[in-house]
């Protein structure tokens, strides 16, 4: 009886996993299928998942600057996302460490204030951020988006890194300080190497937020030379060059950096770094 129940539970689990995988992957298969179909086949009343006459023409059109300045938008998005994620990790590491390890007046109030800010929806911050950006003379610049994304993501960065830092044994840091290391050296020689999984998670999170944002980019950026990929895709939708195949091809190409970045840092998500450091 126990064996039968275990078998039923395993079958249910596998079915749920399969359903999750299909639900997640199927939209991407449809996008790839549409990107590889000619226009007439993509608009058939009865569509086929597998293209009957596959073509790479839509990808060539998207990469053609006369049709769609993909590389301009791609470069802008990558620069903004990478710089934002890098600053968020560096500043977040210092701030989170102060929350986790240092004792100073008002620390609790600052922590609660950071979490309180995160409770507000991003759309509520559009007007005050717009006024701040215009007053600072940053309107229609990449810096306006970098500052905005830092404001939006810093609370989560501080929260995630702070919680991870608290799991690192203080004995490691105390021993390093006794050996003559300064507090800054402790952070970058002890804490940071042991916190690579959390730092990588924060970097990916901030990068994805900045890469996929449409709302703030549409408010703060108006010139084509500074537009990001989400805004560029929206403009492609309203031009004479718009066809479903090109839209799907551009969408697939815009997802590549996030996939590549996750593949690169995936190895850092393995656990056991803290335990290994404690034994040493």
TrEMBL record:
Enumerate the subcellular locations listed in this protein's record, separating them with semicolons. Cell membrane
Record domain ABC transmembrane type-1: where: 74-265
Q: Which domain of life is it from?
A: Bacteria
Q: Provide the transmembrane region boundaries.
A: 12-32, 78-100, 112-133, 145-165, 186-211, 243-265
Q: Which InterPro entries match?
A: BP-dep_ABC_trans_perm, MetI-like, MetI-like_sf
Sorted alphabetically, the Gene Ontology BP terms of this entry are: transmembrane transport
Coiled-coil features, chain-numbered ranges: none
Task: Return any one Pfam family short name.
Answer: BPD_transp_1
* GO CC annotation terms, alphabetical: plasma membrane
The membrane-topology field of this record reads: Multi-pass membrane protein
Q: Which UniProt keywords apply?
A: Cell membrane, Membrane, Transmembrane, Transmembrane helix, Transport
The UniProt entry, under PROSITE patterns, shows: ABC_TM1
What the entry lists under SUPFAM superfamilies is as follows: MetI-like
Q: Which family does the UniProt entry place this protein in?
A: Belongs to the binding-protein-dependent transport system permease family.
Q: Please give the name of this protein.
A: Carbohydrate ABC transporter permease
| Organism of origin | Paenibacillus xerothermodurans
